[in-house]
Write a structure and sequence with these properties.
Layout: H1 2-148, H2 152-200, E1 211-215, H3 220-226, H4 231-240, E2 243-245, E3 252-256, H5 260-276, H6 281-309, H7 317-326, E4 330-331, E5 334-335, H8 336-353, H9 358-367, H10 382-392, H11 397-405, H12 415-429, H13 438-453, E6 458-464, E7 469-474, H14 484-498, E8 506-511
Parallel strand pairs: 7-8
Antiparallel strand pairs: 1-3, 2-3, 4-5, 6-7
Helix pairs in contact: 2-8, 4-6, 5-6, 6-7, 8-9, 8-12, 9-11, 9-12, 10-11, 11-12
């Protein structure tokens, strides 16, 4: 019974609490709804205020922009209006100027018309006078022909012939004077430049041969060099391409070869074998192969040192190798590398005096005989071979032409090419630079005199200064003073065509006429 009452009371209280909770929840919801409505109203009113503020700001900015645009428009309008007014004034001024010019042209046209009438009248008067003068000239000409006994054409030809002969004499005299003056000044300047270049250039010179002599510690070494049944000397000659001469010369053998590099390799290799003492085919092959590699390194170093010495470090590596090979090449007994360096120095000094490119001149001078490093293996002259090599390795066309033209096989295209010809002649023709046999010298001098004597009017010809000058005495009755320059040029051209010689040959033509009378 108590439990039932408890349950009933519990249910009753639960219903009461549920009812109270429902009523309280409903009030809370109503309160929240009212607060939300109020908050929404506040937000709406705030949004309206902000919208009004933004609208006001937009109106203000629009008014400012409109005012600024109106001011700019008015400013541009004033500028355009001012420009239009300026152009209008210029157009009016031009119209006024055109009116004035038109008026002036009208006046000039009237003046020209008046002058034209005057000129026509003068022309008629001149024509009448011309006809009268022509008639008088014809009458006088007929009288002159009757008096002189010559026709007009004959007199004209006589006058033309006289004038032509006089003009030729005057032209020949003028040409001779100009040539003599130019030659005198050119020779004076050339002598100064060349003498200064020679004074400032000092290089060593050596004379090479085609054989090398190797000293031996004793004569027993000759047998070891020859080897059993000659196998050592045959192996050595086969590997080096030289000829080893073992004769009765005490404590010495000779290496002979026209290839200077092969001869140098053989010399170094043989000296190493003699010093080592082990001489047999296997050792010979080893030493020769090692010496060849050392020689390649020496050649490369010589080329690089030469380029650095002359201040030309940007040469192609293959060109440097060819320069190194020139150290072992000779021409007329003159070392080609030393000759090339001397030509480079001389060309550089002369280029500096003439305000030309010194570096290009030195480069062309150093490389002018580069073809001699390969001319034994190629067809053609060393000048053209060298030019082809330099062209292949991208050298300056001025340098290529200077190399090709230094023996006049092609035409020089720049002053540098002419300088190289002069420097090469100076280096090759100085006393002691090149060896020449007595027979070759005599033949060259005789040929020189023979060429000079082959021209008409030449009485005597004498080779002088060791063949550096030829003096020619002409017959005065057959050769005039005006013909001397022409004869000298023709003889010089024939010498250039038919003779080969280092340096240059001076051609001097002398004409002398003597008048002799006896007083009795």
């Amino acid at each position: 019974m108590n439990v039932l009452v408890f349950i009933i009371l519990l249910l009753l209280f639960s219903g009461i609490f549920f009812l109270l909770g429902y009523i309280l929840s409903d009030k809370i919801k109503e309160k929240k709804r009212k607060e939300a409505l109020k908050s929404a109203e506040d937000i709406i009113s705030e949004a309206k205020r902000e919208a009004e503020h933004i609208k006001e700001e937009a109106r203000r900015e629009a008014r400012d922009t409109l005012d600024r645009m109106r001011i700019e428009f008015e400013k541009e309008t004033r500028s355009v209006k001012k420009d239009l007014q300026h152009r209008e004034r210029r157009i009016m001024e031009k119209e006024n100027a055109l009116d004035r010019k038109s008026e002036l042209l009208g006046k000039k046209e009237q003046e020209l018309y008046r002058r034209e009438r005057e000129l026509q009248q003068r022309e008629r008067a001149v024509r009448a006078k011309e006809e009268r003068y022509t008639q008088l000239i014809e009458e006088q000409t007929k009288k002159l022909e009757e008096i002189s006994g010559m026709t007009r054409e004959e007199a004209k030809q006589m006058l033309i012939s006289s004038l032509e002969n006089e003009a030729r004499r005057e032209a020949a005299q003028l040409i001779r004077e100009i040539k003599e003056k130019a030659k005198e000044e050119a020779e004076k300047e050339a002598k100064r430049i060349i003498s200064e270049a020679i004074q400032r250039c000092a290089t060593d010179h050596v004379v090479e041969t085609t054989v090398s002599v190797i000293d031996l510690p004793n004569d027993d070494m000759k047998g070891r060099i020859i080897g059993r049944e000659g196998r050592n000397i045959r192996t050595f000659e086969t590997l080096t391409g030289v000829e080893v001469i073992v004769d009765d010369t005490p404590e010495a053998v000779t290496i002979s070869s026209f290839d200077p590099i092969r001869r140098e390799i053989a010399r170094i290799a043989l000296e190493k074998l003699i010093k080592d003492g082990r001489i047999h085919p296997a050792r010979i092959e080893e030493v020769v192969e090692k010496t060849k590699k050392e020689m390649e390194e020496i050649i490369r170093n010589v080329g690089e040192e030469t380029a650095l010495e002359l201040g030309i470090p940007d040469l192609h590596p293959e060109i440097k190798k060819l320069l190194g090979r020139l150290k072992y090449r000779t021409s007329y007994g003159q070392n080609v590398l030393l000759h090339s360096k001397e030509v480079a120095y001389l060309a550089g000094i002369m280029a500096g005096e003439l305000k030309l490119d010194v570096l290009t001149a030195k480069r062309a001078g150093l490389l002018h005989d580069i073809g001699k490093a390969l001319d034994q293996h190629h067809e053609g002259t060393h000048a053209l071979i060298g030019a082809d090599i330099l062209r292949r390795y991208g050298e300056d066309p001025v340098v290529v032409n200077a190399v090709a033209a230094h023996h006049e096989e092609v035409e020089p295209e720049s002053p540098i090419a002419v300088l190289i010809q002069a420097a090469d002649a100076i280096s090759g023709s100085r006393p002691g630079a090149r060896r020449e046999t007595l027979e070759a010298y005599i033949k060259r001098v005789e040929k020189l005199e023979e060429i000079a004597s082959s021209f008409d009017g030449v009485g005597k010809a004498y080779a002088m200064q060791a063949g550096r000058e030829i003096r020619i005495i002409v017959e005065p009755d057959r050769v005039s003073d005006e013909d001397l320059s022409t004869l000298a040029s023709e003889i010089a051209e024939k010498i250039q065509r038919e003779l080969r010689y280092p340096g240059q040959i001076k051609v001097t033509v002398i004409r002398e006429k003597r008048a002799v009378e006896y007083a009795k």
